[in-house]
C-alpha cells in the first residue's frame, strides 16, 4: 500500500518506520522542514529506538518519500494517517488547530482528485476530544469534498504506543480501536493490522475518541494513587513497594475488571468506613492524598446524579417501585447502602416510594444494620412490600441491583431505570 503520514513527530515517524518494515510505500509529510529533511535523509527527527534504521531502510529501498504538503500525493495514496500534534490550549482543551489545518489541505486535495473505484481512507490517529470526528472533522471535509462514502472514507484509530518502546508497542498493542461510520468500512486499516495479534474494537467515532482519554486518565490515576499510598507507607516507616506488591497480587479484586462497572455508587459497611480511615490517617500526619480523598465526594456526586436522573422521569406524588435496598445482592447489609441514600432523597422530593428487596424478605434487622435503618429510613416497614405485584402501575421502576428472577416478572409496559446499566 502507499500510505501518507501527516506529522513526523513521535507517533508519525514510528508509524513510518513500522510501515517501511512491513514493506509498504511511505510518504512522510510535515510542515517542519527540518524534520522533513531528517526523514528524507533516513534520520529520525526524534529519539526513538529502532526508528532511524528503518527510515534508512526506506530511503535505501526507495520506499520513503517526503514532502511539506500532502496535496501532490493524496490522489495516488491508499491511505493517509494523520498524526499531527494536539497540545493543550490555555483552558486545558486539546488544541485542534493543526488537525484542522491538515484537514483543510486534505479536503481540498480530495476535491481536486478524480473519483476512484477504491476511495482513499483518511485515518485520524491524533488524540482528539470526544465528538471531534462527528462535529468538526466530518463537517469540514464534507464542506470541501462532499460527505464521506463518496470520494473518500474516514476512520479514527487512536494510538496507544509509549515513547521509548514505540516500535515494540506498535507490533504488540493490547488492543486496536477503530472508530468508523459503519463497522467494516475501513478495510485498508484492517489490512495494515492483518498480522498483528490484538483484539479489534470497532466503535462509533465518539466512543473510540473517549477510549484514548479514558486510558490515559487511568494511567495517570494509577501513578497518583500508587504515590499517595507510597507517601503514607513511608511516613509509617513501611516499605511502599512491599505494600504495593501485596496489593498487585490480588488479580481478582484489585488488578482486574472487578468494580469497573459504570452504574451504582459504592457503599456497604467497609469501603466508605475505611476510606474515611485512610483520609483521617493521612490528615493526622499532614500527608496530602487528593486522589484517595476525592473518592467519597465523587461517590456523593454520583448519588446525586442518579437521583437527578430518576427525577427527570418522575414528579412529586408519583409512585416509584425501588427494587433493592441492601448494598449488593445476596446480603441484607443496609449499612451505607447507596440505595438507602437514593430512597431518602426520593422521599424528600415527594415521591411515594415502595421498596422490594428479596434479600430483606422475612429478615429481622438487628444490631448495627437496624440502627442504620432507624437513623436513615425510620419508616422502612411501611415502605417495604412483600412482592412487586403489591405495587399497582408504578410511574417508574428502579432496578437498584441485579435480581433477574424478579425483573423478568415486570410488566414490559412499565418505565424502568436500571442503575447498573447507565
Ligand atoms: N507521543 C506519544 O507517545 C503519543 C502516544 C499516543 C498518542 N499520541 C498523540 O498523537 C498525536 C501526535 O503526537 P506526537 O507526540 O507524535 O506529536 P509531535 O508534536 O511530536 O508531532 C506532531 C508533528 O505534526 C507536525 N504538523 C503540525 N501541523 C502539520 C500539518 N498541517 N501537516 C503536517 N504535519 C504537521 C508537527 O510539525 C510535528 O512534527 C497527538 O495527538 C498525541 O496526543 C502521542
The separation of the N and C termini measures: 42 Å
What small molecules does the structure contain? nicotinamide-adenine-dinucleotide
Radius of gyration: 28 Å
Portion of residues within helices: 40-55%
Tell the overall outline.
Answer: elongated
- The ordered string of helix (H) and strand (E) elements is EHEHHEEHEHEHEHEHHHHHEHEHHEHE
**Order of the strands making up the biggest sheet:** 3-2-1-4-5-6-7-8
Oligomeric category = single chain
- Nearest-integer average pLDDT: 95
Number of helices: 16
Task: Please identify the top-level CATH class of the largest domain.
Answer: Alpha Beta
Number of strands: 12
Computed structural class: alpha/beta
Our estimate of the beta-strand percent is: 5-15%
Q: Based on the structure given, which CATH architecture of the largest domain is correct?
A: 3-Layer(aba) Sandwich
The stretches of 5 or more residues where confidence is low (pLDDT under 50) are none
CATH-level-4 superfamily name of the largest domain: NAD(P)-binding Rossmann-like Domain
Distinctive features:
alpha/beta, 2 domains, Rossmann fold, eight-stranded mixed sheet, binds nicotinamide-adenine-dinucleotide, 422 residues, 12% strand, 16 helices
Amino acid at each position: 500500500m502507499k500510505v501518507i503520514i501527516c506529522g513526523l513527530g513521535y507517533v508519525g515517524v514510528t508509524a513510518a518506520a513500522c510501515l517501511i518494515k512491513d514493506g509498504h510505500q511511505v510518504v512522510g509529510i510535515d510542515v517542519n522542514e527540518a524534520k522533513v529533511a531528517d526523514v528524507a535523509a533516513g534520520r529520525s527527527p526524534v529519539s526513538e529506538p529502532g526508528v532511524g534504521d528503518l527510515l534508512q531502510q526506506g530511503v535505501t529501498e526507495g520506499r520513503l518519500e517526503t514532502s511539506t504538503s500532502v496535496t501532490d500525493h493524496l490522489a495516488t495514496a491508499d491511505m493517509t494517517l494523520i498524526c499531527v500534534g494536539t497540545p493543550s490550549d490555555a483552558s486545558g482543551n486539546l488544541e485542534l488547530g493543526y488537525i484542522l489545518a491538515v484537514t483543510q489541505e486534505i479536503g481540498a486535495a480530495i476535491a481536486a482528485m478524480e473519483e476512484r473505484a477504491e476511495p482513499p481512507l483518511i485515518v485520524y490517529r491524533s488524540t482528539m476530544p470526544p465528538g471531534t470526528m462527528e462535529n468538526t472533522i466530518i463537517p469540514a471535509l464534507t464542506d470541501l469534498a462532499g460527505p464521506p462514502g463518496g470520494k473518500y472514507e474516514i476512520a479514527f484509530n487512536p494510538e496507544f504506543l509509549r515513547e521509548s518502546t514505540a516500535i515494540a508497542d506498535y507490533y504488540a498493542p493490547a488492543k486496536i480501536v477503530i472508530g468508523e461510520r459503519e463497522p467494516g468500512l475501513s478495510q485498508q486499516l484492517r489490512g495494515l493490522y492483518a498480522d498483528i495479534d490484538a483484539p479489534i474494537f470497532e466503535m462509533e467515532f465518539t466512543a473510540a475518541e473517549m477510549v484514548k482519554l479514558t486510558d490515559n486518565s487511568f494511567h495517570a490515576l494509577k501513578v497518583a494513587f500508587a504515590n499517595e499510598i507510597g507517601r503514607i507507607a513511608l511516613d509509617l516507616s513501611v516499605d511502599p513497594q512491599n505494600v504495593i506488591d501485596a496489593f498487585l497480587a490480588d488479580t481478582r479484586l484489585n488488578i482486574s475488571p472487578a468494580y469497573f462497572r459504570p452504574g451504582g455508587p459504592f457503599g456497604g459497611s467497609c469501603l466508605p468506613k475505611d476510606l474515611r480511615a485512610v483520609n483521617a490517617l493521612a490528615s493526622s500526619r499532614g500527608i496530602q492524598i487528593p486522589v484517595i480523598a476525592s473518592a467519597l465526594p465523587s461517590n456523593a456526586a454520583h448519588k446525586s446524579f442518579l437521583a437527578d436522573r430518576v427525577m427527570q422521569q418522575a414528579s412529586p406524588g408519583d409512585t416509584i417501585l425501588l427494587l433493592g435496598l441492601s448494598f449488593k445482592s445476596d446480603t441484607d447489609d443496609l449499612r451505607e447502602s447507596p440505595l438507602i441514600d437514593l430512597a431518602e432523597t426520593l422521599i424528600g422530593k415527594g415521591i411515594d416510594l415502595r421498596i422490594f428487596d428479596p434479600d430483606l424478605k422475612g429478615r429481622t434487622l438487628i444490631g448495627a444494620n437496624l440502627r442504620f435503618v432507624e437513623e436513615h429510613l425510620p419508616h422502612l416497614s411501611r415502605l417495604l412490600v412483600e412482592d412487586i405485584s403489591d405495587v399497582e402501575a408504578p410511574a417508574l421502576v428502579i432496578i437498584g441491583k441485579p435480581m433477574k428472577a424478579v425483573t423478568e416478572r415486570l410488566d414490559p409496559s412499565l418505565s424502568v431505570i436500571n442503575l447498573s446499566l447507565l
